[in-house]
Structure formats: structure tokens, C-alpha cells
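Hey,

The postdoc asked me to send both predictions to you directly instead of through the lab channel. I've kept everything plain text so nothing gets mangled by the mail client. Protein one:
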Amino acid sequence: MTETESFAYDVVVIGAGPVGENVADRTLAAGLSTAVVESELVGGECSYWACMPSKALLRPVIAHADARRTPGLRAAARAPLDAAEVFAHRDEQTAHWKDDGQVEWLEGAGAALHRGHGRLSGPRTVTVTTPEGRTETLTARHAVAVCTGSRAALPGLPGLRDGAVAPWTSRGATSAREAPGRLVVVGGGVVAAEMATAWQNLGSSVTVLVRGSGLLERMEPFAGELVSQALREAGAEVRTGVSVTGVSRENGTVVAVTDAGDRVEADEILFATGRAPRTDDLGLETVGLEPGSWLEVDNTLRVTGSDWLYAAGDVNHRALLTHQGKYQARVAGDAIAARARGEAPPTAATADDGAVPQVVFTDPEVASVGVTLAEAERAGHRVRAVDVDLATVAGAGLYADGYRGRARMVVDLDREILRGVTFVGPGVGELLHSATVAVVAQVPVARLWHAVPAYPTISEVWLRLLETYRG
């Protein structure tokens, strides 16, 4: 019979990714004893299989593309990327999938780390099964925070359902040691667009199969159009309006069958078709919640119907982005600390509603915040889209020859504020925070005239947008 060891803390956090780390950081700073439970690597998905490795793969790709558009560098940029060096750099950025540094930070902050699979086993109680098979029971005096994130969701297709084909998901795409000769990417969202960009330029021949009408359909239409154009120019094939009905592996070759009856052959296949919450084996049923469900929360990240359970990050489905999850974690940690003192929470997570910033690290980059024109119109706002060709901006022409890009701001005509902003083009990711401030602060358009952009930078697009709006 396995003996159970018991521990008591003020707060127990399940999940040691960036979100869980930030909850712990806030509660520890408030003087609350805090335990963190992690079944894999401290640092989570972002550090080892998502944000960091994907951008480590993409940064050389984008720099190489910029060099090809820069006078004086074109000859040097004709050589292909050194894929081995790129992979080595990726491995360094992921600390070679070792979490010693992250553990040192967490324990240095004062958290108690419990390695193993954590499950709720009743109100304020978490049971941990350690890698050695021991059982630990953690009791939380004030709160349990679920920060377990999300995982890739695979469709129930023939060949996947029976395990005949082991596809890449986002994890496989960011950790592969070499470029497959042929890669099929199924999906049209951010992961599909970024990984198609990376692997096409790292030596693979990429075919993208998109069920919808184009890439990045949740963003302004021109975003997906420009990214698709660039992928095709790089040599990738992008097929839209195509559904995969089954996959098989024949003599080492992956075969994807489409709804049109076409057979697309490849060495590897990446499914980037959505995310699912990591709550299926979390013990939600012990506290009256549905296993495998997204967790509904209020603006302090407390789970609906509970006075002790919190859920921050992907797991609540509000905004599946690391920076939004960390933002939620800061709000949740402060709320837990305040309520432990018998006080009202000092702030609420309002940025998840209509002011979410995101950068897609393709070539060209896509940066957006707030709502699209279509979303604003569906919400009943009286709005106007103001568009500018980024090639008309002096700083863009200096950034790269043949600069190609577009900017849009969605103006609320009744309130004269910005509801959303989208930039597409090389280097536009660094423009995004100015747009985020304008949207979040609801800066009046008339006031934006007095925020003078430096010349000659790409940020001068703000002046062009305002001039176009004034007419």
C-alpha cells in the first residue's frame, strides 16, 4: 500500500508554465505560501514547444528574407540557410529541453515544486502522483489555480483515430531535428502559417491544405492573402477549400486524401487544426465540473460558481496567447492575495475583451490588436476601415526594396476612437504596442494627431492612416 504524504499551503498552482509561474510570483510576493505542481518541464509549452522554439526557427528565416530585399546583402543572401545552425540555436533557446534554470528561479522565488501529475480530489485539495509512484496530498487554505494550458486537438480521421499515422503537432513541428523533404501542413491558422513559413525556408517542400477560404481567417482578409502570396513565392503550395478525409502511411510515405479524392504525398504531416484544454484528467468531476471542458471564469479569473478555484491562461479559452495568459495570471494572483486578506480584488482582466494583441511571425509579419472590421460591424458598431499601402511610407522603402504591406485601423465613428488596428509587412511586429496603447486607452483620433511619428520610420504609417481618415 502506497503511503500518502500531506502538505498544506495557502495556494496551490497546477501547471508551471509562464502562467502558473506568474500566479505563483504574485501570491508569493504577497506573503502567501505557494506550491506549484508540474508533470513535465517547468517553463511549460511556451518555453519548450511553442513560443521560444518556433520563433528561434522563424527569426533566421525572416532575417534571411529581409537580407534578400536589402541592397548590398542580396548576393550573400542567395546562399540557403544553414539549417543545422538554426536547429542548434533553437536547442539553446529551449535549454536543450532541460528545466534546471526555470526550477532554480521558481524555488528561488520561494515556491514549493511538486513534480508529478496533479488532480483535484475535492474542494481546495490536489492529489499528486509523483514519477516514482508516490502520492502527495496538497491542501490549499485559500485557492487552487489551474494553469494547465492547452494541447493540440487532432481530428478523428481514419489513420489518426487508429494510430496508423503519427502526425506532427505543434510540438513535433518545433522540435524536429531535420527538415523533411516533403511536408504537408493541415490547417490555416497561426501555427499552420508560421510552421509552413519556417519549414519551406529550412529545406522542406511544403503543401498547405486549408479547409477555409484562406489563411488566418480570424484576422483581416488581406493578412492571409499577403502571407499566402509570400509562401507561394517561396515555393510552397497553398490549397484552399480543401478538407482532409483520411491519412495513411504507405512504404514510409504519408498520404493525405482530400474530399476531392486527391492524394497528397509527404514525408511528414503536420496537423494544426485547433487546441483542446488540458483538463481531461484533472479531477474536475470531484468539484462538480465537466472533465475535458474549458473553464469559465469571471474577470478575476475565478471559476464560475466557485469561491476558491481559479483558471488562467489557455485553459479558460479567453485568449490562447502566452502574453494574455501571463496578464491573466497577474490579475488572478493579485485577486487571490487580496481575498486572502479579506479585501476586494484590486483589478480585473478587461484586456481579454476587444483589446488582444497578437503577432504572427511569418514573412510578412502580421500584427493586430482589437477587432477586425467584420467583428466590429457584427457587434453593431458604426465603424469605418481606413487602409494604407505600407509601400507609400518612406521608412518602409528604406527598410526593404519592394516593400509590400498594408495597414488598417477600424475607427468607431460615434466615439472617434480605434476599435482595432492591423499591420502586415516586414518588421511590423514592433509597431503593435503603439496600436495596443491606442486601442486600450481609447485615445481619441483627434489626440493621435499629436503623437508625431519619427521620420523616416515605418511607424510613419500612423500619420498616413490619420491623413487618410481626415481625407
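Protein two:
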Amino acid sequence: MHPSINDALEDWLAYIESIHPSEIELGLQRVSAVAQKLLSKNEYKPTVFTVAGTNGKGTTTAALSALACEAGLETGWYSSPHLFEFNERIRINGKPVSNQRIVEALYAIEIGRGDISLSYFEYTTLAALWLFDQAKLKVWVLEVGLGGRLDAVNIVDADVAVITTIGIDHEAFLGSDINVIGYEKAGICRPEKPVVLGSANLPQGLHDEVASRSAIEYRFGDQHGVKEAIVFWQGGQIDAGQIRIPHDNAASACQAFYLSGIQLSTDAIQHALEGIQMPGRMQKVNWQGHEIIVDVGHNPHAGAYIAKQLGSQKVNVLLGMLADKDVHGFVQALAPVSKQMHAVSLAVPRGLSAQELVARTDYPFESTFDSMAQAIRELIQTMPDTPLFIGGSFYTVCDALTFLEK
């Protein structure tokens, strides 16, 4: 029996998690059938940005949402996963939607789906689309959860697609062939519509699929990119100095926004991008006089970005990771900036114990911890003059920030 419209969001989330064997089931047939019942048909047409990629999706969608809001447009932003509260996944005009509105959406989907089976991610994606549709928002910013071609988000046609980066992640679903992964990501492209590429280092399989779909490709470094301290795109350029999100992502978002035809001055774009703060992305916290840096990155590509951001700075590294991630690759990417490496157990589904994490790599770990609180306290005491980096998972960063903020 499903919860009622008067039940708590937590009850609904537990319910949709329990009725399907997996959180994610790739394929569009089932979710499309339900969407046909629930969403408007040709009544209005929002401008849709769809963003796929291995890393950088969250910050790129944040930038697109901020630009649309700066332009004064009613904007929906769907992203995943969340850091603290589920509501972070579904935002209207930059603000998380209330629990009650999400419950109303989930209730509508539950009644409308009939006997069609939906995964957790399909429910939550439909909830976002239903809320955006009900509010008749002018702009929809949609982040692909996994892959692209068969992801639930792809039931909506993108006016402008963005593909940020391509790396190895979610191997159980996408495999380890970089060209096949590129093919899957390119599935969000539409004929004669633009696709903005967020990296100059993308596999040929992606370019081939973009061409086969007759999409219009805008390559990073040509029409948009970063040069010295300047973010540029076809519509102009701005100073990158005070922009706290990755500048490659900022450039891609500006190019995508320009191609949508929505008008915004460069001063307004500068203001919108400088106002973005992304919790858990190279976030620095001063805790009892000690510098702690957290980042949600969890694959080798993200690890290389983190190491680049840290530069010559050597840090004490504390990692907690999920079982389906490339632990060895992530650890190796962080090795150049690590003074010491430590592991902490992650007490969530698919979470590795600290001992299991260490066993996944041949890198010498200094110590293991059962809890985040214990790890932070001891590492700060033993190496008080060395910054502490904490990462490996959204769950790890959530645990760390929750403890630090207390």
C-alpha cells in the first residue's frame, strides 16, 4: 500500500526505494508512458537545457539555473544526488521545493503510473518534471543521472545539450569502453540542435554519435573556453577571477545560454556566476583553527581535478568511498598531493568499510577509522599544521560537514 498525500516525504522516499529492486533501471519506455499521462501535451514549450557528463554536471547546471534566474525567468533545476536534503534535487528559481509539493508530485505519479514499474530515479525525475510542468516554468535545467541515451531525463527534448567531460564511472551500467560511454552521453543530442562540449579531451565515439544524430557541435576551446583569467564564449567574455565554480563549466554554461537565444548582458552574467556557491565542491572550512577541504568527487577524473586545484599544497587525505567506484584510480590521482592517506568507513548501502577501501589499492594507508568524528579529531591532533582533505563520496562529505557544523 502506498503512502497517502498527507504522509511525510521521508515515508514516500522509503516507499519508492522499496518497491523496485534497483535505484536505477536504464530505459525510456516505462517512464515515457507515465510522462505521457501526467505532463502537458503541446500546451507550452519551455527552453530546456540538458547536461550530461562524468564530472561537472552539477556546477554546469547550477550556472545555467543562475543565468536563467538572473534573466528574470521562472526556472526549474533538477540535479542529483543531494548532499544533505532530498529537496536539493528539485529547485524552482534557485530554491528547493517544499516537502509537501514533492509529496504531491510523488502521489500524482503513483496514481498515474497504474501497473507500470518505476525505479527510484524515475520517480524522482518525473516528480521534478511534473512540478516544473504544473508551474509552467519558462526554463528547465536538467542534469542526467547516469549515461544519457537511456536516462529518464532524456524523455524531454533538449533545446541545448551540454556534455561536460567523459571518464570511467558507473562501470556496472556503462562499461569501461570510453567510446561506448561517449556514445551513451551523446544520446541527449537532438537533430539540428546545439550540443556544447565542456572539454577538449572527449572520445571519438562521442563526436561520431553527435554527427550521426545531426546535432550541431560546439567544441571547447573554439567557440568557448578559458584563456588565462578570462572565460569566453561566442557572446562575450568575463573575468574568471571571482568565479568559484570550475571555469571550464562556467564557459560551457555561458555558451549554452547564448545558444538558447535568451538575452543577458555580460555584467549580469558576471554577477550571476560570481554568486554561485556549491557546497561540497572544493569547499574550505576553518574548524577550530584548522583548514579542512571537502570535495564530493569520487572517480579518477575528479581526483585529477582535485589534485590540480590543490597544486603544490600537500594535504592529509581522508577517504570514504562506495563499493562500485574505482578506488585505486581515485587514490592514485590524489597521491601526488597526499602527505598521508587515511580511510574511514562509510555506513551506507554500498559503502566500504575502511579496511575494505584500503584493500582495493596498493597505496600505503597510514590509518583507518570507523567514524568521521573520530577521524577528524585524531588527524587534526596528529598533523595540526597540515590541511585535511576529506572526500571520495557525497556521503563522506555530508558526514564531514554535518560533524564540522555541529
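Summary for protein two, as requested: Residues 376 and 400 are 8 Å apart (CA to CA).

Thanks,
C.
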